[in-house]
Amino acid sequence: MTLTFHLDPPLTPTLHDGILTLWADVTNAGGAVGFVPPATPEVIRPQLLKHLTAMAEGQHRLLLGLDDTGTPAATAFFSFNTHRLMAHWVWLFTVMVHPAHQGKGYGRALMSAAETAARDFDGIDAIRLTCRGGLGLEHFYASCGYKEVGRVPGAIRVAPDDHRDDITMLLPLT
Question: pTM for the full model?
Fold first, then answer.
């Protein structure tokens, strides 16, 4: 089975709910996607609604990976910079692959699809992303061509006694 990637798919109620389920499943499996376990789709819904609002305003775009049943299995959101001096690069965030599909190369396929999509955006020369330290994510992103360009020690508090580095990665497209 492979994933089919769609940039800016029409979001039906089924896809909307599927993205919420994906996000909750990734979070509850220990994924670093903005929440800590336990998380339910209802806890995540306000954040997804913020993404959808930004999409409607033209500030965000969604790359969605569907499995062979049409179920959301991977996502990545692009965020465009509004500052005129930084409009030449995009943020990539909420990058996730469903835990049932990990280890199959889908993460690498998602990152490749994100790079391909970004190359088609007018005036975009690079992709930036941040990741949570302590999980080895920076090594995965490095294997996809990203370079670590910054690190803030202890900037992410996942629990009162658990602080992680906030790592910034960059992929030049030129």
Answer: 0.96
